[in-house]
Design brief:
Elements: E1 10-14, H1 27-40, E2 46-50, H2 56-62
Parallel strand pairs: 1-2
Length: about 80
Amino acid sequence: MALRSGDNAIYLVVDALDECSSSLHSERQRIMSFLCNLNLMENPALRICVTSRFEDDISMTLGPLAYYSVSIHSETGQ
């Protein structure tokens, strides 16, 4: 998929990834693999937002790909 200059951005939102099954070859693994493959395309118009509770497999797989990350667990509540 190639976008020309001036084309609209593409937004992909994946909400509550942690709620997918985490067993081997699970939906979660397939979704994360899909997101990694999208990232490899290096499409400057593609924006991906993933929400999840902290899970080791998600953090290890998608963490290195994150441009920006927010954790509500590290907030002081002030």
